[in-house]
Amino acid sequence: MGEMPMGKSHEILQFTNHVIQGRWFSLFASFLIMAGAGATYLFGTYSKEIKSSLGYDQTTLNLLGFFKDLGANVGVFSGLLAEVTPTWFVLLVGASMNFTGYFMIWFSVVGKIQKPNVWLMCMYICLGANSQNFANTGALVTSVRNFPESRGNLIGLLKGFTGLSGAIMTQLYLAVYGNDATSLILLIAWLPAAISVIFVYTIREMRVVKQPNQLRVFYYCLAIAIVLALFLMVMTLVERTVRFTHAAYVGTATIACALLFLPLSVFLREELGVFRRKNIIEPPRVSTTEHPPVPVVVVVENKDTNNNLKCLSFNDIFLNKPERGEDYSILQALLSTDMLILFVATFCGLGTSLTAVDNLGQIGESLGYPTTTIKSFVSLLSIWNFFGRIFSGFVSEALLVKYKFPRTLMMTLVLLLSCIGLLLIAFPFNGSVYVASVIIGFSFGAQLPLLFSIISELFGLKYYSTLFNCGQLASPLGSYILNVKVTGPLYDREALKDLAKKGLTRSSVKELTCIGNQCYRQAFVILASVACFGALASLILVARTIKFYKGDIYKKFREQAEATEAEMASTNNK
């Protein structure tokens, strides 16, 4: 009678160990980390607090926005670090950077320290924003290597949760701190760092093994993520029209967190099936002397860091490059024509989108929308950012597998769509900012999974940690030129015209503000033209890669999975 509970508890411990060390729990931890890695998209919500408390003009605020984008997109250091250190170290470095950067911004805004110089604030926000690259590298790259045949679906899900993070954090800060935008900065400082620390040892690279229900599991996660996004969108709209009590905010935040954790139930069911099949194939040993029962342990691949140091000749870099889809070296990939075209398309696409996102709060203000409505714009953009990422990930994967539809062509269509959203801000009408928020959020979100998937497909996964971070380098450059050098000065020029009409000068007011349709018109006409040019440039990449996408780009990964299964079966039969 007493043996059964002990045996049952031992089996439960074995299953728990199996789950914690499994690839599905690692993916769940990646979902949570990515859901906390989108603090940069909330800049439009708390930027007004920075501007008013520190007395910045729009050009200075846009300079902060540039350094935020610079930190968020220059992830080369995190990529190189991941090539030579374990994933847990990458995540810990990112957590410490996130807490330090945003905590110092919060200290500055609430007046806990003396007003810092502008360059110091730029450093703080760059440091905090750069931390998301460490989360991306640790969680996204590891997950893609663990599920290489479903990279489009996987990247779409992971980046989708990042796109939702703005709306999720908005619900959490309303529940914890109330309607206080400065406290949002504090939440951004401690919450993502805490998530990374909790799951720091969970996320790691494992051997590729074919999962029989892999696609079905991803579609379950897609359904859950869509329900979460719809819930957040409804709550965003309801909170704009109905005055919520603190208890109501707590309730909505609780439901959002429950939906965020729901994929764990799907993964537990999948791991239970794997656990049972493993026990049937490999029953526990009876002997207690020579072969005691061994818990299920996942075999982790060791990184071959020596190959990273291999010197390549001029011919290797420029002439004797591998075929598309094979593993390029870092220099071979960065100095290729395909990467150059991706750089131009990213400069135009993400540069214009980031500029629109960073100025969304001021756009709403210039058109006379109230503060609650402006916050709705930011939340709607975050939610449709999610739908764009999910769409580009899953739909591009389905079209690629079934119809050999090039992912590069999908990028062209997304860039053309963004032009429409930018023109809606340049020529606004009643309610146009709502539509523009949806379109810009969708197109902005769709670009990232496409960029990351294209880089992994064209240049291989061997140095993906570095290459996908390098692929984003054009984004901060585009943001700097289009936001700091174009949009900010044009806005300030219109604001000075307004002051001149009132008989005032710049020194007469603390904050430089422009009101009217003309404030952003010229700037966003330029942005729309740049996005259109990026779409035309991406068409060149479509022509270059269409033959590659007509082939079987996942063949080698299926062969690797089959070889691993054969090796495991041979080991079990011995």
UniProtKB/TrEMBL annotation:
Start and end residues of each NFD4 C-terminal domain: 338-549
User: What InterPro entries does the entry give?
Assistant: MFS_trans_sf, NFD4_C, Nodulin-like
**Which parts pass through the membrane?**
24-43, 88-111, 154-175, 181-203, 215-235, 247-268, 339-357, 377-401, 408-427, 433-455, 524-546
Q: How does it sit in the membrane?
A: Multi-pass membrane protein
Domain Nodulin-like residue range list? 23-266
Q: Name one Pfam family in it.
A: NFD4_C
UniProt entry keywords in alphabetical sequence: Membrane, Transmembrane, Transmembrane helix
Q: Give any Gene Ontology cellular component.
A: membrane
Q: Where in the cell is it found?
A: Membrane
Q: Is this entry keyworded Transmembrane? A: yes
The similarity annotation says: Belongs to the major facilitator superfamily. Phosphate:H(+) symporter (TC 2.A.1.9) family.
PANTHER family reported in the protein's UniProt record = PROTEIN NUCLEAR FUSION DEFECTIVE 4-LIKE ISOFORM X1, UNCHARACTERIZED NODULIN-LIKE PROTEIN
In its UniProt entry, what is this protein called?
Nodulin-like domain-containing protein
**Source species, please?**
Solanum stoloniferum
